[in-house]
Amino acid sequence: MDATTTTRTQAERAARDAIPDHPRLAGALRAGDLPAVAAGAGDLSPRDLAETLARCDEADAGVLFRLLDKDTAAAAFEELDAVTAQRMLDGMREDRVAELVEGLDPDDRARLLGEMPASVAHRVLAGLAPDRRRATAALLGYPAGSAGRLMTPETVSLHSGGTVTEALARVRRAGRNAETVYTLPVVGPGRVLEGVVTLRELVLSTPETPLADLVETGTPTVRATDTGEHAARLLGDSDRIALPVVDGEDRLLGLLTIDDAVEELERADSEDVARQSGAAPWSGHYMTVGVLSLARSRIVWLLLLLVAATLTVNVLQYFEDTLAQVTALALFVPLLIGTGGNAGAQAATASVRALAVGEVRPSDVLTVMWREARVGAALGTMLALAGLVIGTALVGAQIALVVGISLVAICAWAATIGATMPLVARRLGIDPAVVSAPAVTTLVDATGLVIYFSVAHLVLQF
Known about the structure:
Layout: H1 3-18, H2 22-31, H3 34-42, H4 46-55, H5 58-67, H6 70-79, H7 82-89, H8 94-102, H9 106-115, H10 118-126, H11 130-140, H12 147-150, E1 158-159, H13 164-174, E2 183-187, E3 193-198, H14 199-204, E4 222-223, H15 228-237, E5 242-246, E6 252-257, H16 258-276, H17 291-318, H18 320-325, H19 333-356, H20 365-395, H21 397-427, H22 437-460
Parallel strand pairs: 1-2, 4-5
Antiparallel strand pairs: 2-3, 5-6
Helix pairs in contact: 2-3, 4-5, 4-6, 7-9, 9-11, 15-16, 17-22, 19-21, 19-22, 20-21, 21-22
């Protein structure tokens, strides 16, 4: 074994050893072995503790949380998602709830309170220190899902008239209470944003350098009322670690940091994945969401798709005489509708993704239609070559020709429809992810059968 292989093997072993033994800790909780629980929890990082708490039922999670020391419990609480955090707070004393919520960053605090019942949120908010209550209430004043809810107001802003020495002195005075000091907004009169400067530039510049010489103007900004997903993607596209958040008059309100942007993108992507698979998004950790809650998130779409699937039944019934005359056509129905559905789902997924990252816009609908029609035709042609060989061997050249022509037409049609529907949905103000792959597949199934039997009539002349 060479040195490279040995090093890789050791790294893999270390990575495996670093994975916390969640099942063992859960087993100790179920057995009531509190010393083993405390010992096992002490070996976990705050993030791993948060994952373990999310996977436990309410009773076990409460026991584990109470066994943590004060600082560890606060660190783990910060890592919890809002639903699990709310579950942890149920049953705690109000002073303990206030202590945990007060220790959160303002944006995390606002996110948690936004998930709480209104009566509970008001009570918790009233128990906060005045400065934290004002900061949290200001964030809660923005619409749910907006950049204003995600930003941190705890920033160190600089005034452009000073020097590097004065700027660093302000960072030292105010930076301890800020969430980040790596991106420093520079403001003018009335807190109007003039640009940003990075801590790296300040540290590497000479003390007497005017701050105005270091300010980067024209910095991308987001409005507090912009959607959180849009703001998060803009931050990712700008290759920065934070973006200034401003109001309608370009006055600085706070910063959107990269960690909050990543969480927002994860949430948005989870919603899109759920909708594309034909389900409603759910809140909370998958392992602790109730069976009925998961079923409710899926049943509506399944009922809608069941109703839509009756189109396929009606098409088959309409062409019943055709099937009676040429029974061999029935052999290829599953192949054709399955292939068409898959082609449409691929195109729909690609279109939703391109919309999400800004690669296409609703105004590109005609270009996308033409592009996907050609892609689908190319795919159909490649599949038709295989279909001709298989069909000829099984049922003869004429039926094989019908199948081959149908594959080209169905794939072109399916790709066009699959890519176009999300663009049309966005233009109508509907979430493109709602136009899910199952919905496209169901539509293509019915229309694909019409194409198939129409081609059969033309080729077979009956």
